[in-house]
Design goal:
Layout lengths: L7 E6 L1 H4 L9 H16 L3 E6 L2 H9 L8 H24 L5 E6 L1 H5 L1 H16 L3 E6 L13 H11 L4 E6 L4 E2 L10 E2 L1 E2 L19 H14 L3 E6 L7 H4 L6 E3 L8 H7 L7 E4 L1 H8 L10 E5 L7 E5 L5 E6 L4 H9 L5 H5 L13 E3 L17 E2 L1
Parallel strand pairs: 1-2, 1-5, 2-4, 3-4, 5-9, 8-10, 11-13
Antiparallel strand pairs: 6-7, 9-10, 11-12, 12-16, 13-14, 14-15
Helix pairs in contact: 2-4, 3-4, 7-8
Catalytic activity: L-glutamate + ATP = L-glutamyl 5-phosphate + ADP
Main location: cytoplasm
Keywords: Amino-acid biosynthesis, ATP-binding, Cytoplasm, Kinase, Nucleotide-binding, Proline biosynthesis, Transferase
Length: 387
């Protein structure tokens, strides 16, 4: 992508670039260079969304708690302290470049619930239309380890999908992706990635990039690829950190888009931040689903994992534990168990009301292709029910 092409761009920056590890203060030199570059991009006609970490890190200093000592409650409280401090820093620097900013705090529910997803998209579209710079962050104050998005890399990728961006740029502490730990003298820099799965094992170590890790960046890149968005991973330098990438002036890793997605609806269905629940199908049932012949039928379900509500997106596995599809369920987990145990009887007879025959309609089902990263089948647990 050339910097002269008018496009939508999502930029993600992490805590390591925004906040000093030593004293937990905002790194104003980086902030100044970043916002100056964004102002330059906007002057060329680009629309930019910034996904920013850093609130909890700044807030920990206000609370007098070191990151190594902070628990979940500490981090939630720190986010409440740090968010206004971080936004004040952004506002002060943005005013130097006549940028008007807007804060957008999101949780995983905002991404996973279709109505809230669309409401968020409408808000971001309106902010961009009005010439503002949206600054997005996970709402750490109200999330917990169980329900949080988990990392701002994937949150940023979902935002890139949401607004149908053309470029997704992750600024990090390293130049990009290596085929193994960068500390290894035989490590080779990877300039372009088509199949992210080839590098998953090589990026599982967090030592290459600190707490976030390159693994989450590969997962985020895959989500962006599936949405038709080009992804760039580069170091967060002080001067022109974004335009120097778009103008090909320095080294970076580019993850190519997988063409134009079939539809925004199918992209939303296929790429999840959290697993609401899952079901395992018989061999024949999974084969028919993969071939696109049918939706998910109650008589093909062998086991149910987790607890979910009607309208959640489920992960669908075959007997061998391979994920084959994801889709919007017509029933809650309790209702699915009842239907699967009483096959051959009408839905109304089992549940007391009339509804769809299929647990997941074929039109609400996305068959996973090779370029999608599959999720491992959940381990057997108390919520796993054999039917």
């Amino acid at each position: 992508m050339s910097v002269n092409e008018q496009k939508r761009i999502v930029i993600k920056v992490g805590s390591g670039l925004l906040v000093s590890e030593e004293d937990l203060n905002v790194r104003y030199a980086f902030l100044f260079g970043l916002l100056e570059d964004i102002a330059s991009l906007r002057a060329k006609g680009h629309e930019v969304v910034l996904v920013s970490s850093g609130a909890a890190a700044v807030g920990l200093k206000a609370m007098g708690v070191r990151p190594s000592e902070a628990g979940v409650a500490d981090k939630q409280a720190a986010a409440a302290c740090g968010q206004p401090l971080l936004m004040a820093a952004y506002k002060a620097v943005a005013s130097e470049f006549d940028l008007s900013i807007a804060q957008v705090l999101l949780t995983s529910d905002d991404m996973e619930n279709r109505r809230r997803f669309l409401n968020t998209k409408n808000t971001l579209d309106r902010l961009l239309d009005r010439g503002l710079l949206p600054i997005v962050n996970e709402n750490d104050t109200v999330t917990t380890e169980e329900i949080r998005v988990g990392d701002n890399d994937r949150l940023a990728a979902k935002v890139a999908q949401m607004i149908q961006a053309q470029a997704f740029i992750m600024l990090t502490g390293v130049e990009g992706l290596y085929d193994r730990n960068p500390d290894d003298e035989d490590a080779r820099f990877v300039e372009e990635v088509s199949d992210v799965s080839e590098y998953i094992e090589a990026t599982k170590s967090k030592s290459a990039l600190g707490s976030g890790g390159m693994l989450t960046k590969m997962m985020a890149a895959n989500m962006a690829q599936n949405g038709g968005v080009e992804t760039y991973i580069a170091s967060g330098i002080l001067e022109r950190p974004v335009t120097s990438v778009l103008e090909n002036e320095r080294r970076y890793t580019r993850c190519t888009a997988h063409g134009d997605p079939a539809s925004a609806w199918r992209v939303w269905l296929a790429d999840r931040l959290n697993m609401a629940g899952s079901i395992t199908l018989s061999k024949d049932g999974a084969k028919a689903v993969r071939e696109g012949k049918i939706g998910v039928r109650a008589e093909d379900i062998q086991s149910v994992h987790g607890e979910w509500a009607k309208g959640d997106v489920l992960h669908v596995y075959d007997e061998d534990g391979e994920e084959c599809a994801r889709g919007l369920t017509n029933y809650s987990s309790n209702e699915v168990v009842l239907l699967a145990k009483r096959t051959g009887r009408a839905v109304e007879e089992v549940l007391g009301y009339h509804s769809n025959a299929d647990v997941i309609d074929a039109g609400n089902l996305v068959i996973l292709e090779e370029h999608h990263l599959p999720w491992a089948v959940p381990e057997e647990e108390a919520t796993a029910i054999e039917v």
